[in-house]
Inverse folding.
């Protein structure tokens, strides 16, 4: 066991998967000598060589498209897109090709690649460095989308993603890259894709979140009345959705608040709320609440904390739902 | 003959002022007059000081990430000045390492600071200033220059668009689409590529297999030049000529401006991780400010006392700019919403109103329960 940050846990998973499987190669902008702009791939080029940790030209479509080719060619590429905003230039390759090859070739061509992407706000970065586009990709059939929020999950889910036979977008909540440490086993282990985690059990109200806002939810819970028993769920995987865990929880509590950074309209919270009303209608005591970003462009950092759901707004949402 | 040479090409390199401050008088003919050289030297010095202060603001927590322009002043100075003199209505479509070209063409200096202070009003360009907000997504904006030039051509205006981007940007597909559109549709665009040898930690040798960046424009059928980007004369001349071709013949031009990023990529970067200090040292000697000053001194146009005066002036100018930028109140939360559309729709209005009163962006009637965001 070692006490690791999220960044270190990801680095460890990459190291071990590269040790174990020579098909695993990393590619992206500044991932080699510089170890990535967040130092996630620190030391990996020195260890595995420039053939396996590849500094590419500055071209996201190039990175994504050639990673697709590498995957078809029998490798297990792990491309990095430097910030979620720069998935833009790679969008066509990702959604129109990576996501569709299995289907359009009726299973003859598959794309086992893991696209690593730092995601979300809260780090005082310039524009297009703070967005939360997970719903866009969850809405793209053929892509799996994950977003771990703890070092333990980060390691286990990255290993699952790399071993997965299909394309996985592995979002890394950059705000909590170094926010805290956690015991992470030395040995390789997997955390399944498609399985949410109950962070805290409770009986009165379910709070669902993922990524960096899980920490905001935990903070919010510290300031809620003690007699309000909250069940906190970290989705960990956006798609495929773990419907069972949610339905079981909300059937028990009858109340649910969903928290995400992304814009409210058509955010992933909307899908969860729909699933809840489909499956838990007769158990519901209150409308499902959303505490989310707004339907605007993510503001520059002077206003980003006004935009992002924080513990106060989450607590208020919970109280409103509890009082309904 | 079944076998022949279908195409040959060469790339001209232009340097007029060398690193020792020696001017090639013949090549310099018709370029910058002495008072213009003095003016640009002053502007480059102010820009350098601006950069140093911006760096300090970041280090002391008064500003976010900032990309220094240090060492790259001459290319944008010559190009920006050529635009200002010969096509003042031109559109400038920049990224972030040509502040001086923007200042020379009317961008208030506090705008750039405001931008990096995380305030979007830094992108709100005043009326009458034909400059787009600096482009954060690399290599995506040259297409907008193509469109702007197209619009000018459509309207019959003699108006060019100049776009600035880095060596790294040339790897993005959009840059190539912009080059192709400009050439195929005959658009008056000037592509000004600042090859500073690095794209964050990636050297240009990894960026491309081409010997020069200039030759990338050749494939699209436009005149291409490589210049010493630390030479204001070369930069001025090549852009002036490009304006002429653009206006008279609707012909685009591709310019590779050879320079060097003397600082880190941004304040968040540490170039020592990937750059040889000897390489940096060599480029310190090619600093555009030093050679321009040497030239002026050689012509008895500059003195120690003038230098002192200039440094005092630079300090005064930049102090005032910083004061202005820091004196602007934090934007209100309305600023998040107000520019989403010409007219806000119901949901946005509700979210905007409730952000100020509610935690949720909904249910304004339950105000009593809410905290102030
Ligand atoms: C589309 C896109 N991809 C990646 C980035 C991250 N990034 C910012 S600057 C940069 C390097 C740019 O290099 P270059 O074009 O040579 O310009 P320079 O910074 O050297 O002036 C990268 C990779 C970005 N801003 N936009
Ligand atoms: Mg560069």
């Amino acid at each position: 066991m070692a006490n690791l940050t999220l960044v270190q846990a990801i680095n460890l998973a990459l190291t071990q998967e590269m040790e174990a499987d020579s098909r695993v190669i990393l590619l992206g902008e500044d991932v080699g000598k510089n170890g990535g702009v967040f130092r996630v791939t620190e030391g990996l080029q020195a260890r595995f060589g420039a053939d396996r940790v590849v500094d590419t030209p500055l071209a996201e479509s190039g990175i994504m498209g050639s990673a697709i080719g590498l995957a078809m060619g029998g490798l297990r590429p792990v491309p990095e897109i430097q910030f979620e905003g720069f998935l833009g230039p790679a969008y066509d390759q990702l959604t129109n090709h990576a996501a569709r090859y299995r289907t359009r070739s009726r299973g003859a061509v598959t794309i086992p690649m893991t696209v690593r992407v730092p995601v979300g706000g809260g780090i005082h970065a310039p524009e297009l460095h703070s967005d939360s586009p997970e719903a866009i990709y969850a809405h793209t059939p053929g892509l799996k989308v994950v977003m771990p929020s703890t070092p333990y999950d980060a390691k286990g889910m990255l290993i699952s993603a790399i071993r997965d036979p299909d394309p996985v977008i592995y979002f890394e909540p950059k705000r909590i890259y170094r926010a805290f440490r956690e015991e992470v086993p030395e040995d390789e282990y997997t955390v399944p894709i498609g399985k949410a985690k109950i962070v805290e059990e409770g009986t009165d109200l379910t709070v669902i979140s993922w990524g960096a806002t899980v920490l905001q939810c935990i903070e919010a819970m510290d300031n809620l009345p003690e007699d309000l028993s909250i069940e906190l769920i970290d989705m960990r995987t956006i798609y495929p959705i773990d419907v069972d865990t949610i339905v079981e929880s909300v059937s028990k509590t009858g109340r649910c608040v969903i928290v995400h950074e992304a814009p409210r309209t058509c955010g992933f919270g909307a899908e969860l709320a729909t699933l809840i009303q489909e499956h838990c209608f007769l158990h519901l005591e209150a409308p499902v609440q959303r505490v989310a970003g707004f339907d605007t462009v993510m503001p520059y950092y002077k206003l980003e904390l006004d935009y992002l759901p924080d513990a106060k707004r989450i607590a208020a949402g919970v109280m409103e739902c509890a009082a309904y | 003959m079944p076998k022949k040479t279908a195409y040959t090409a060469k790339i001209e390199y232009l340097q007029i002022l060398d690193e020792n401050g020696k001017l090639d008088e013949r090549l310099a003919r018709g370029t910058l007059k002495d008072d213009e050289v003095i003016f640009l030297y002053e502007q480059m010095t102010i820009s350098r000081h601006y950069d140093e202060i911006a760096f300090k603001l970041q280090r002391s927590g008064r500003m976010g990430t900032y990309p220094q322009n240090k060492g790259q002043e001459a290319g944008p100075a010559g190009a920006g000045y050529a635009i200002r003199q010969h096509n003042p209505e031109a559109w400038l479509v920049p990224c972030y390492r040509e502040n001086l070209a923007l200042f020379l063409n009317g961008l208030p200096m506090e705008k750039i600071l405001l931008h990096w202070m995380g305030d979007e009003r830094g992108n709100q360009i005043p009326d009458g200033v034909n400059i787009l907000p600096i482009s954060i997504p690399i290599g995506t904006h040259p297409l907008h220059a193509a469109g702007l030039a197209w619009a000018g051509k459509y309207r019959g205006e003699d108006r060019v668009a100049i776009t600035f981007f880095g060596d790294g940007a040339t790897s993005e597909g959009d840059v190539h689409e912009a080059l192709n559109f400009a050439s195929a549709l005959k658009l008056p665009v000037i592509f000004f590529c600042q090859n500073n040898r690095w794209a964050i930690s990636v050297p240009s040798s990894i960026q491309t297999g081409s010997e020069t960046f200039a030759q990338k424009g050749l494939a699209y059928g436009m005149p291409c030049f490589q210049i010493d980007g630390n030479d204001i004369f070369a930069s001025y001349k090549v852009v002036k000529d490009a304006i002429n071709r653009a206006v008279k013949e609707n012909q685009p031009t591709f310019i590779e401006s050879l320079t060097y990023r003397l600082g880190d990529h941004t304040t968040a970067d540490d170039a020592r991780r990937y750059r040889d200090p000897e390489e940096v040292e060599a480029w310190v000697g090619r600093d555009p400010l030093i050679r321009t000053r040497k030239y002026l001194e050689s012509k008895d146009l500059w003195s120690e006392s003038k230098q002192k005066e200039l440094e005092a002036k630079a300090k005064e100018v930049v102090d005032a700019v910083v004061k202005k930028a820091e004196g602007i109140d934090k934007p209100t939360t309305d600023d998040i919403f107000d520019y989403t559309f010409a007219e806000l729709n119901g949901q946005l209005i509700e979210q905007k109103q409730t952000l100020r009163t509610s935690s949720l962006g909904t249910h304004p009637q339950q105000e009593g329960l809410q905290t102030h965001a």
About this structure: Chain B touches chain A through 53 residues (CB under 8 Å).
